[in-house]
Structures are given as structure tokens and as C-alpha cells.
Design goal:
Number of helices: 26
Number of domains: 3
Shape: globular
Radius of gyration: 27 Å
Length: 596
């Protein structure tokens, strides 16, 4: 892609145009953004969701439709996946979503495929929100704001079909619109909002936030287990994370679409890669990386092109482009045969509408309006956090919060006071960036789910192995995938205790209805082994907590308690006594130190 020669030779400070440069994106970066989003969506659908269709999205799973609609769907979201609870229906929807994501990947009707991917994604998310994490919220937002961008401007079937008859392909030099402004500000809101919610002393005074985060055994990788033992290093990483999340977005905004933006991009990419290699966070780090790759400035692409040309790699790239040309030609021929594109005098080369490089004023107005809506949504959440968690700070700035409008109380002319947050739930713009906020949790552990079968055998249904009470060597390995990890961590919390009943019913259905030829499950228990983290690396005593127990048939209802029920009670009693002793010992040492 050629560079504007009239400005390429000028210094950076002469080429910088405020404020256009601050919100402009390079079309090549937008193309990487499109390809990356589509690829991650395919990974998510094919690697995790496809194998758990019955468990997570059907009436035989952990959240039947009638239970969800009647007891849990307070936000009144919209989902096509609620139309049927059959596995075949969910499989068809998943297959359609895979096909749409594949077309988005290669850039055929890019804007339409982006919009359809967003619609299908929010439908999927609204079917079972209890298997979602913060990365999924960010994921659907990136698709939403992507609808306002020319995703197929370069490196796409759309661009190929439009420019193949031209001697000089027409590409935009940069993209500036309400969509680019909204996408960038949404990205920065994620980091600034989460830092505003991180009010615990672990982040700002003690410097122990990373220490506690890496001690959450659900997430810690082997590298994370090693790193959490290095207290000096974790203290430095706590402060570095806070500084990068605040300063990185600010530097990227001020640097504009110049080479200076590469520095904050590299900082943010390094931070998210470190998250990905030290903690099992699913696709969250890689989704976050996509938000920064779209900000790669034009000068960085130009320098990469010059470097490759000097390295005599241009011929190899020309061969790759020719191969891509043949592939796209074959794809166009196939679309024509399937009558998905109109014929014309050029045979399989269809006439396509020019790619819109400039957004329509109405689209810009919609994007900016919804961005303001999202901004006040996050501000409302921050206000509520300070009002309930940090009351002293809230009291000092109550004059400011009283002037900030609330989305819950909006005066609409002719309608009176209304709650317009429903719009956010319909469009799935709802968001709250509370990752490890206000502080990382100190209590975690692992699940033990003993089940007693008709033949008298007892198996841990969580691992499929013999019942063991000792801590697993690698706790993340006890979960099938990130979706199950998120769901089970949710039902451990008191706010999700009503879901434990339905998880128990799912396990009964799994062994007695779905697998009719297998062993019959009579009764099961759900235990959680709690292990709290202290300021040192010394382990705290483990406690056993019974979350739920149920029978799967009449034989299980009449069954007397097996020996492991008493075993859990004994572990819980000893753990509480030991924790109380340690607390009293710490209190006495503190009082003695204060007296001295």
C-alpha cells in the first residue's frame, strides 16, 4: 500500500494533525482486526462451545429454558437460541454462526457478515450468561463497533473484486469516523474503568494484588505458580500493571496515528501476553490483543514493508499474493455457480458496490450517541461502587456524582421518568469491568463431586477418577475447558447458589437419561475444598464445604450417607479450628509488636 509522498518525508510532528490523527485508523490494521476477530470466534465455537451444546444450551443441560426465563432472566435479553431446547436446533445455529464467521474471515460482504456475527454472538451469550467471562463481554462489543468500520477495505474478497479491473487499486489512506472514535474510546474505557474499580489496598498500598491473583488455583499456570513465589517481583508487577492500564491508553490516544503509538501498543501487548502465559483466562488475553492490533499506525506498516523489500522477500510475497488471487477467483466462481452473486459480462467476476471508506453522517451520529450511552453506563457503575464500597471518597466528591446523569432515572418528554438501561441489555452493550476488582479474591479451592452408582462404586464426577481429598497437582486440569471453569466457579459463590440444584439435575440426566446404556447414578454430592491465601506463601488450612446433594432415583433417596460425608465434616471442623488458632496467634503477635 502506497504512502502519501507529500507528507511521508516530513517529521512526525509536522505530519501530526490534531485531532484527526488521534481517532484515525489504518485500513490494514482494520483488516487484521477483522481477520483476528473472525479467527477467535471460530476457535471459540469449534474448540469449546461445540462440545458442550447439550450441557450449556439445551433443556437437558445446566440451564433449561423454562428455568432460565422464569427465575434468572431479569434483564429481558433477546436470544434466538431460546426458541428450542433441542440439541439439533442448537447445532444448526452453531453451524450457521461458523459459516458466517468463515465468510467474515475472508472478507466477503464484510460489513454484513460482521453484523450477522454480532447478532448470532449476542444471541448465544444471552442463552446462558453463566458460562461467560469478561472476555466474552469485550468480544461482542468489538463486533458491535466493527459494524461501523469498513472491515473489508483491504485484504478481503470485497477489495479484490472491486479492484481487480483497475490498474491502480483504490484504498483509503486512513479511516476516520464516529466508528473509529467509538471503538478506540470503548477500548480505553475498559482499562480506565477497571482501574477506577480497583480500590483495594492490595493495588495501591500493599502491592500484593498480583500475589493474590496468581494464588487463585483455578487460573494459575505452572509459570504462574512459580511467579507467585517471588514476592518482590509480584509487588513490582502490581505497580507496573496499574501504571500501564492507566497510562497506556492515554499515550495511545495522544500519540495519534503515528509511529509513537507503537510504544503503548507494545506495552499493552506485553501485559496481555503475560496474563495469558501465567493464568488460564481462556480467550480473554487474545481478544484484548485484538483491540490493540487495530491501533497499529500506518507508519509501522510502511516500515515493515520497506524492511521486507530490503530483505529481498518481495518475490515470496508476490507468489503468496498470486496464490491468494487464484484462491479468491475460485471462490468467486463458486459463489457465481451457487447464484449467490449476480452474473455479468465478465463471467464469474461479479459487479460489487464500492466499499464505503467514509461513513454516513447518520452512522457517525449513532456510533457517537451509543458511545456516550456506554460512557454513562460505566460511570454509573463506578458511582455505585464508590457509594457502597468506598463511602469516604464518595462523600468527598458527592457534589460531582450528583451532577452525573443516571441511566436508571432519565426524564423522557411525554413519558416521564424511565430506565433506559433496557436498551443496553437488548443490544448487549451492558458491561462492568471488575476484573480482580476491588481486589483479587483470597479464597479459592477445588471441587469434589462424589457420585454413588447402582453397582455401589463411588467416583469423583469432576475428574472421572477415584475419590481423592488431597489437592490436585494442577487445579485448572480438573476443568474440561474455560466455560466449565467459569460456570463452576460461579456456583461456588453464594449469589449463584440457586444454580447448584440445576447442576445436580444435569449430572443425573447425563448418566441416567443421555447415557442410557451406561452405569446408573443413584446419588451425588457437590463439595468445595476451600483454601484461603494469606500474605505469605504458607498454605492456610483446607476446609470442606458441602454445596449440594441430591438423589437421582428412588434407590438413591433411600440410601444412607456414605463414609465420605462424615469425612467432609471432619475436614471442615479441623480446618476451622486451625484457622481460628492461626488468627489468634497473628492477633497476639500484632498486639505484642504494637506494645514494643
Amino acid at each position: 500500500m502506497s504512502v502519501d509522498v507529500s507528507t511521508a518525508s516530513l517529521p512526525i510532528w509536522r505530519r501530526y494533525r490534531f485531532p484527526r490523527s488521534m481517532i484515525s485508523l489504518d485500513p490494514r490494521s482494520v483488516a487484521v482486526y477483522r481477520i483476528g476477530l473472525a479467527f477467535l470466534l471460530l476457535c471459540d465455537l469449534l474448540y469449546t462451545r461445540m462440545w458442550d451444546i447439550t450441557a450449556h444450551y439445551t433443556d437437558l443441560g445446566v440451564l433449561p429454558r423454562d428455568i432460565y426465563i422464569e427465575k434468572f432472566d431479569r434483564d429481558q435479553t433477546i436470544s434466538f437460541h431460546l426458541m428450542s431446547g433441542a440439541a439439533w436446533f442448537q447445532g444448526i445455529l452453531l453451524s450457521v454462526q461458523v459459516a458466517i464467521a468463515s465468510l467474515m474471515l475472508i472478507g466477503w460482504r464484510s460489513r454484513i457478515m460482521t453484523a450477522l456475527s454480532w447478532v448470532m454472538l449476542i444471541s448465544l451469550h444471552s442463552r446462558n450468561p453463566y458460562v461467560l467471562q469478561g472476555g466474552d463481554v469485550l468480544f461482542r462489543l468489538l463486533f458491535f463497533w466493527g459494524m461501523f468500520l469498513p472491515m473489508g477495505a483491504v485484504w478481503s474478497v470485497d477489495a479484490y473484486l472491486q479492484n481487480r479491473e483497475q490498474d491502480t487499486p483504490s484504498y483509503p489512506k486512513d479511516i476516520v469516523s464516529g466508528g473509529t472514535f467509538a471503538l478506540m474510546l470503548q477500548t480505553f474505557i475498559v482499562y480506565w474503568s477497571t482501574m477506577a474499580l480497583k480500590t483495594g489496598v492490595e493495588w495501591w498500598e500493599a502491592g500484593t494484588a498480583v500475589h493474590y491473583a496468581l494464588h487463585i488455583d483455578h487460573f494459575a499456570t505452572p509459570l504462574g505458580v512459580w511467579l507467585r513465589e517471588q514476592q518482590g517481583l509480584t509487588a513490582f508487577l502490581t505497580q507496573a500493571t496499574a501504571v500501564i492500564e492507566i497510562a497506556g491508553p492515554a499515550l495511545a490516544l495522544l500519540a495519534g496515528n503515528t509511529l509513537l503509538r507503537a510504544l503503548p501498543i507494545l506495552l499493552m501487548l506485553g501485559m496481555h501476553v503475560s496474563f495469558g502465559v501465567t493464568m488460564k483466562l481462556g480467550l480473554f488475553p487474545w481478544i484484548s490483543i485484538m483491540t490493540w492490533l487495530v491501533l497499529i499506525p500506518a507508519s509501522a506498516w510502511d516500515r515493515v514493508g520497506l524492511t521486507l523489500e530490503k530483505a529481498a522477500l518481495s518475490k515470496r510475497f508476490e507468489m503468496a499474493v498470486n496464490g491468494l488471487d487464484r484462491l479468491v477467483s475460485a471462490f468467486g466462481f463458486l459463489l457465481n455457480k451457487l447464484k449467490l452473486l449476480p452474473k455479468n459480462t465478465w463471467g464469474f467476476r461479479p459487479r460489487v458496490r464500492p466499499i464505503a471508506f467514509r461513513s454516513h453522517p447518520l452512522a457517525n451520529l449513532i456510533a457517537v450517541s451509543l458511545l456516550l450511552y456506554v460512557f454513562f453506563w460505566n460511570l454509573d457503575g463506578i458511582r455505585g461502587h464508590y457509594k457502597t464500597k468506598v463511602k469516604k471518597v464518595y462523600a468527598q466528591f458527592e457534589w460531582f456524582w450528583s451532577e452525573v446523569p443516571s441511566l436508571r432515572k432519565v426524564d423522557l418528554p411525554g413519558y416521564g421518568e424511565a430506565d433506559i438501561r433496557k436498551l443496553g441489555y437488548v443490544l448487549r452493550l451492558d458491561q462492568k469491568w471488575s476484573m480482580f476488582a476491588p481486589r483479587p479474591m483470597r479464597g479459592d479451592g477445588w471441587f469434589i463431586v462424589p457420585g454413588v452408582f447402582a453397582d455401589g462404586t463411588t467416583v469423583d464426577l469432576q475428574t472421572g477418577e477415584t475419590l481423592e481429598w488431597d489437592k490436585p497437582e494442577y487445579v485448572p486440569g480438573t476443568y474440561k475447558n474455560q466455560r466449565w471453569r467459569k460456570y463452576l466457579v460461579n456456583i461456588w459463590m453464594a449469589t449463584f447458589k440457586r444454580h447448584r440444584r440445576h447442576y445436580g439435575k444435569y449430572l443425573c440426566n447425563k448418566y441416567n437419561k443421555v447415557n442410557k446404556g451406561g452405569k446408573r447414578l443413584d446419588r451425588l454430592w457437590i463439595y468445595y475444598m476451600i483454601e484461603r491465601t494469606n500474605d505469605t506463601n504458607d498454605p492456610d488450612p483446607v476446609e470442606c464445604r458441602s454445596l449440594w446433594s441430591t438423589w437421582c432415583n428412588a434407590r438413591g433417596k433411600e440410601m444412607s450417607d456414605p463414609p465420605f460425608v462424615a469425612k467432609c465434616k471432619d475436614i471442615a471442623k479441623k480446618g476451622k479450628a486451625e484457622r481460628k488458632r492461626l488468627q489468634e496467634l497473628a492477633a497476639s503477635k500484632g498486639a505484642q509488636a504494637k506494645a514494643n
